[in-house]
Design brief:
Double-stranded beta-helix, 8-stranded mixed beta sheet, 16 strands, 18% helix, binds 2-oxoglutaric acid, binds fe (ii) ion
Length: 285
């Protein structure tokens, strides 16, 4: 049980007064239970070093990707300092689920704010488990066994104004993977829509135009106020989210001009099960 937890509306929770470094296994298990229940957590850490961040992350999963930072290759920097904001900083400004274009999807992603702009630079989260529950039973039946083809690039359910996703260096953009449209969460077993935008390029056995119409309808249903929470980052916040049951979208922000509008985030995205949870209720999906 995590004390000092306050729910956010309509979903998510804020946690304060918890030292991530001091959490024993029971404490971490309790924190992750809260993550799976609430879908995303904002932890007011009070500050932690990059080493402490990596140590915490490695208890939860396996970091995805390696960065040039030799000392902490697990950490990917996200910043609006000295970047071409037309392309790079806006690459995540569309609804997506991390790594849905790979077989080994991301389990948890974490963003730690080293510098936060006073205004803007929010991250929005959508609750795809609640969105699934709210579908009518005929739609649930229609989509029950559908399998979606995912590829990096602009998806067939992209929304007007979405930014073009930026592929990892050297990524083969023709590489295609398949994921069920409805998945069970690997730990809680809860059913959820999975990655309905961001990477879908088709539905197996369905004409392309029909697949686009269906996915767009699911997007219109899901990306609505009752299922969306927006987080404004503050310095030393650690935001962590459950990728299987959520989608997220960055708010575009211009290039930094000074301390007031500078955004510096350290990111670690993880895959694989946390060793503290051995149950797998995903049905292999
Ligand atoms: O910069 C953000 O707000 C979110 C970026 C993002 O999509 C991610 O870190 O996975
Ligand atoms: Fe992302």
């Amino acid at each position: 049980m995590i004390h000092n937890l306050s729910p956010l509306a309509p979903f998510g929770a804020e946690v304060s007064g918890v030292s991530l470094q001091a959490l024993d296994d029971d404490g971490l298990r309790a924190l992750l239970r809260e993550l799976y229940e609430n879908r995303f957590l904002v932890i007011r850490t009070g500050g932690m070093s990059r080493r402490e961040f990596v140590t915490f992350a490695l208890r939860i999963g396996e970091p995805i990707g390696r960065n040039f930072d030799k000392e902490h290759p697990e950490i990917i920097p996200i910043t609006n300092v000295g970047v071409d904001t037309k392309a790079e900083a806006k690459g995540a400004a569309h609804w997506h689920t991390d790594q849905s274009f790979t077989e080994q999807r991301s389990s948890v992603t974490m963003l730690y704010s080293e510098q936060a702009p006073r205004v803007g630079g929010e991250t929005r989260f959508a609750n795809l488990a609640d969105a699934y529950d709210a579908l009518d039973s005929s739609m649930k039946e229609t989509i029950a066994d559908l399998v979606v083809e995912h590829r990096h690039g602009v998806s067939i359910s992209a929304r007007p104004g979405d930014h073009v996703p930026i592929p990892p260096k050297g990524w083969d953009q023709s590489y295609t993977v398949r994921h069920p449209l409805v998945r069970k969460h690997p730990v809680t077993g809860r059913k959820t829509l999975y990655a309905i935008s961001g990477t879908p390029q088709g539905i197996v056995g369905m004409p392309l135009a029909e697949a686009a119409v269906l996915l767009e309808a699911l997007c219109r249903h899901s990306f609505r106020a009752p299922f969306i929470t927006e987080h404004h980052h503050a310095v030393h916040d650690l935001v962590m989210w459950d990728n299987p049951t959520t989608m997220h979208s960055a708010t575009p922000i211009g290039a930094a001009t000074g301390p007031e509008d500078t955004r510096v985030i350290r990111r670690i995205s993880l895959r694989g099960a946390c060793p503290l949870f051995t149950e797998d209720r995903s049905d292999g999906t």
